[in-house]
Write a structure and sequence with these properties.
Blueprint lengths: L8 H12 L4 H8 L3 H14 L17 H13 L5 H9 L8 H10 L15 H13 L5 H4 L2 E10 L32 E8 L8 E3 L5 H19 L6 E2 L10 H9 L5 E2 L12 H13 L8 H13 L3 H8 L2 H4 L1
Helix pairs in contact: 1-2, 1-3, 2-3, 11-12
Length: about 325
């Protein structure tokens, strides 16, 4: 029978107390549920050394990385987050008399709460853009969910016919690297794609608009006239709506600004900070559409089929889906 663990000081005191009360080793063991060897050893340690506490915590090999070593290792990790275990080990052992192995480094890092993970992908932000994003958050920090319900979110997105996912893994043996079943085909520019423009608010999800020609200010002006203006006046007849758009060049063109200026009494264009796709809930709807396309039993084989699939999936998005995204804005801010 394997050892279950050391006795607590309380239980060791019980064994000593039973013996001092006149019970034999066997009687003490039966009373307390310990083995005769355990009772004998505890009582012998007490009679010889007059101690009850176990000294086993001082046994075993001393840890190679003490508290000071952990602080040194943490500094190495914070100095270079992309360093491999091999690199961390090499840098840690520099100038030290006793070297440690990569296995020890890996185990110590786990004990310290570190683990190797994929970094989150975020936009590359300049100091100016960081400041503008902060100003936007501070200006809208007191907005409630009811305020965000008055915002219509818009964006355009491109869906590729041949989707390449770097996270795909396969099972194969070493000699099967060129087996047809172990290959993933790729084509230039994803085999072409479909670009669409969409708009939604907490109240409604408008149909997508395919972008079949060059995406410039003229093309966007027709979108604003034929879709943005009707949507805003229908959803917000009391002129309390906000229209959101990002800062791509065609959105900031003079003819677009003049158009919005003509209708400023009907709705307001939300001043959007640069590089802030993470704040726009519509980005998550694009992810939902993309995910639904990739799990289709029959994948689109041409651009027409891809466009039809995108339109179909978009129209089937539930109210719960896009309304929940609108309600996340206070947390995002």
């Amino acid at each position: 029978m394997g050892k279950k663990g050391d006795l607590s000081d309380f239980k060791r005191g019980m064994a000593v107390g039973a013996r001092r009360a006149g019970l034999s080793i066997s009687e003490s063991a039966n009373l307390l549920g310990f083995s005769r060897t355990t009772v004998s050893r505890v009582c012998r340690e007490w009679s010889e050394k007059e101690i009850i506490s176990s000294e086993r915590q001082f046994c075993g090999r001393k840890c190679l990385v003490d508290a000071r070593g952990q602080r040194r290792m943490a500094r190495l990790v914070r100095a270079d987050r992309k360093a491999t275990v091999t690199q961390i080990t090499t840098r840690y052992n520099q100038g030290r008399q006793k070297s440690i192995s990569e296995r020890t480094v890996r185990r110590t890092l786990r004990q310290m709460g570190y683990s190797s993970r994929r970094p989150r992908r975020v936009p590359l932000l300049s100091a100016k853009n960081r400041k503008l994003r902060l100003q936007f958050a501070q200006a809208h920090g007191n907005w409630k969910i009811e305020d965000w319900k008055n915002v219509a979110w818009s964006d355009e997105s491109r869906f590729l016919l041949r989707h390449s996912d770097g996270k795909v893994r396969i099972w194969r043996q070493q000699h099967e690297s060129m087996d047809p079943s172990c290959l993933v085909s790729k084509v230039q520019a994803g085999g072409g794609g479909v670009m669409v423009w969409g708009i939604f608010s907490w109240h409604s999800l408008d149909p997508l608009v395919p972008i079949e020609h060059c995406w410039n200010a003229t093309a966007y002006l027709s979108i604003v006239a034929d879709h943005v203006h009707p949507f805003m006046t229908t959803m917000y007849p009391t002129s309390d709506g906000y229209f959101q758009q990002d800062n791509v060049p065609c959105h900031k063109a003079g003819i677009i600004s003049d158009c919005f200026l003509e209708h400023d009494y009907e709705f307001t264009v939300l001043k959007w900070p640069p590089q802030s796709a993470d704040l726009n809930p519509i980005e998550h709807l694009w992810d939902v559409v993309e995910g639904e396309i990739r799990i289709m039993d029959v994948q689109p084989t041409n651009l027409r089929q891809l466009c039809d699939a995108i339109m179909s999936i978009w129209t089937k998005l539930s109210e719960e889906c896009f309304q929940h995204l609108g309600e996340t804005m206070p947390r995002r801010i």
